[in-house]
Automatic annotation (TrEMBL):
Catalytic reaction annotation: L-seryl-[protein] + ATP = O-phospho-L-seryl-[protein] + ADP + H(+); L-threonyl-[protein] + ATP = O-phospho-L-threonyl-[protein] + ADP + H(+)
Source organism of this protein record: Serpula lacrymans var. lacrymans (strain S7.9)
Tagged with keyword Phosphoprotein: no
Keywords: ATP-binding, Kinase, Nucleotide-binding, Serine/threonine-protein kinase, Transferase
Binding site residues for ATP: 62
Name listed for the protein in its UniProt record: non-specific serine/threonine protein kinase
Record lineage: Eukaryota, Fungi, Dikarya, Basidiomycota, Agaricomycotina
Length: 108
């Protein structure tokens, strides 16, 4: 599976979702989710609706094409986006909260 950055679907912060992240000893991966419809697409990414298999919580998962990012030298842009979400997303009402990131051979 090729899934990476996971962002909460709802506007409100979900305490149980962050408890799951902090409490979990194992790493989260694409197999932990059931993927649904595509919510949006960009030049090197797409966003899919996904349901966490353990909790039933819905998320929007942004899937970045690692090959495209490397070819177009956009890896620093993706890293800057992630770092911005980490720094600002947890406390800013206008920025989506980043719950997890993960990668595989093809995607960030």
């Amino acid at each position: 599976a090729q899934r990476v950055a996971i962002k909460a679907r709802s506007k409100s912060r979900n305490r149980s979702a962050s408890k799951t992240r902090n409490h979990s000893v194992s790493r989260i991966c694409a197999e932990d989710f059931e993927f649904g419809e595509t919510l949006g697409e960009g030049s090197y990414s797409e966003v899919k609706r996904a349901t966490h298999r353990g909790s039933g919580q819905q998320y929007a998962i942004k899937i970045l094409d690692k090959g495209h990012l490397k070819r177009k030298q956009k890896l620093p842009v993706a890293l800057a986006e992630k770092n911005t979400l980490v720094k600002l997303g947890a406390g800013h009402p206008g920025i989506v909260h980043l719950h997890w990131t993960f990668q595989d051979e093809w995607s960030l």
